[in-house]
Amino acid sequence: MTTVDATALASLLVLADGRFPAGGHAHSGGAEAAVAAGRIRDAADLEEFCRGRLHTAGLTAAALAAAAAAGADPLLLDEAADARTPSPALRATARRLGRQLMRAARAAWPSPALDALAAARPRGAHQPVVLGVTARAAGLGAGAAAYAAGYEAIGGPATAVVRLLGLDPFEATGVLARLAPELDAVASRAAVAGERVVEEGADVLPAASAPLLDVMAEVHGGWAVRLFAS
Amino acid sequence: MHLDHSTTPYPHRHTHSATPALRPNGKRRALRIGLGGPVGTGKTATVAALCRALRDDLSIAVVTNDIYTREDAEFLLRNAVLPPERITAVETGACPHTAIRDDISANLEAIEDLEETIEDPLDLILVESGGDNLTATFSKGLVDAQIFVIDVAGGDDIPRKGGPGITGADLLVVNKTDLAPYVGVDLDGMARDAKAQRGDLPVAFTSLAAEGGVAPVRDWVRERLAAWRRT
Ligand SMILES: Nc1nc2c(ncn2[C@@H]2O[C@H](COP(=O)(O)OP(=O)(O)OP(=O)(O)O)[C@@H](O)[C@H]2O)c(=O)[nH]1
Ligand SMILES: [Mg+2]
Q: Would you call A21 and B93 a contact, using CB atoms and an 8 Å cutoff?
């Protein structure tokens, strides 16, 4: 089992902090569409939503981030991310968030690898790929990158639902705490896959997807009035 | 920090506003001015009037930060104050103050795109925040100067209440003076309170309902631009 190097974790706290200024606050991770459709009404629904997202889009993102942190070619991973993101709206969102993360990352952990990726993808690479390259620049390994991506997959919707429903913030945090053991498992699996990519190529990456998230993202993208960009 | 600290010291900042002053292509970037303030005080009306007053002499673009619609951008488009490619709406996730202060990445991206896509070099970019509360101010990493817009209809005690926008904005605009008689507001009292809160920082009283009502704000913007070009 891959573990996170416990001697170099401070950077992970900085990177995974919800206040890290990388644009995520304007996105709900599909929660706004799910709330509107009546699929999320309370903390129990939020937990199911986050669980589903963690094991699908979250796992895929975490493995991409882990691979980038392990040193795999980010442009190859960017293509792999495209292939794993069928929804054009979600591709656009992933690239936009990647571009925004890049700005914060280069200020926080300046590195030639980040500069090179920014130059190769000026409109933004997929966010999990940028996240992995950032983690590497911060001295973090595949496991830490996988944790950051996996946590983001559930932390974003939880914060959004607090705003959308006025959900009790303690309940929302309780949801995240209850999902922690599952995040441990997902991050571990993603880290193993990510590390294999360096030798075996991007095909070993998981391609778990959530079709309803994809479909709803397309619908949400067409709304005229919404609180969140995605 | 220890005296014998061996790592690189903090790089010194030579300005206290949005940096750097040059774009990647080496050209001077546009001056960025933020407009914030409570809901409905006349921020969009001020932006529209500024564009009309300055667009013949200056190359201008606008970024709006609406709360959950594209109303501000659409108002500006509908009124054709600028060509559509010069107006960009940023989505704020229900929190304009986050997008203009705590996490400015989407706004910086919008500005970067405008600077790249507009043919003639931009002189001025106006960034409007969606209506928010009295504590909402712009990050110095996003704008070079900020205007805080309040109105007389919100009551004449707003300047006295203070808050970072009232006390610290580079220009305080008290708009809708035409409504003062109808809402029983004492403009002299507002001016005294504003002076007490702001010291020497300027205050402009405007009525955008009147022809040329934006003149004091326009003149202030011109001064800022002249100062920016001298730096
Ligand atoms: N009487 C009067 N009405 C004004 C004046 N300036 C603006 N208004 C009106 O006030 C209303 C709100 O103006 P906006 O410019 O949309 O205000 P805003 O601050 O952009 O509003 P939000 O973006 O929603 O916070 C509009 O109906 C304007 O026409 C003024 O000087 N006098
Ligand atoms: Mg407005």
A: no
Ion ligand 2 nearby residues (CB, 5 A): B 43-44, 72
- For residue A225, the distance in angstroms to the closest alpha carbon of chain B comes to 5
- The answer for residues whose C-beta is within 8 angstroms of residue A155's C-beta and 6 or more apart is A18, A176
Give tens-digit pLDDT for A23-51. 999 999 999 999 999 999 999 999 999 99
**Residue scoring higher pLDDT (B135 or B226):** B226
Q: How big is the A-B interface in CB pairs under 8 Å?
A: 60
Cross-strand partners of B174: B150, B205
User: A226 in a domain, yes or no?
Assistant: no
pTM of the model: 0.88
State which of B43, B132, B178 you would mutate to test the pocket of ligand 1, scoring each by most atoms of that ligand within 8 A of its C-beta: B43
| CB neighbours of residue A51 within 10 Å | 16
Determine contact, residues B110/A28, Cβ cutoff 8 Å: no
Q: Is residue A78 part of a domain?
A: yes
Kindly tell me if the per-residue pLDDT of B8 is higher than 90. no
Distances (CA, A) of A60 to A57, A146, A158, B61, B96: 5, 10, 19, 39, 31
Residue A76 sits in a domain whose CATH number is 1.10.4190.10
Rounded to an integer, what distance in angstroms lies between the CA atom of residue B167 and that of residue A23? 28
Q: Tell me, what's the pLDDT at B18?
A: 65
Torsional sign, CA B131, B186, B45, B120: negative
Domain B31-230 has CATH 3.65.10.10: no
Residues of B in contact with A227 (CB under 8 A): 67-68, 93-94
Is A116 inside a domain boundary?
Answer: yes
- Domain membership flag for residue A20: no
- Enumerate chain B positions whose Cβ falls within 8 A of a Cβ in A: 67-70, 90-95, 98-99, 102-106, 108-109
C-beta of B175 in contact with ligand 1 (< 6 A): yes
B97 pocket-lining for ligand 1 (C-beta < 6 Å): no
The residue length of chain A stands at 230
Q: Which domain holds residue A83?
A: 29-221
B44 lines ligand 1 (CB under 6 A): yes
Number of domains in chain A: 1
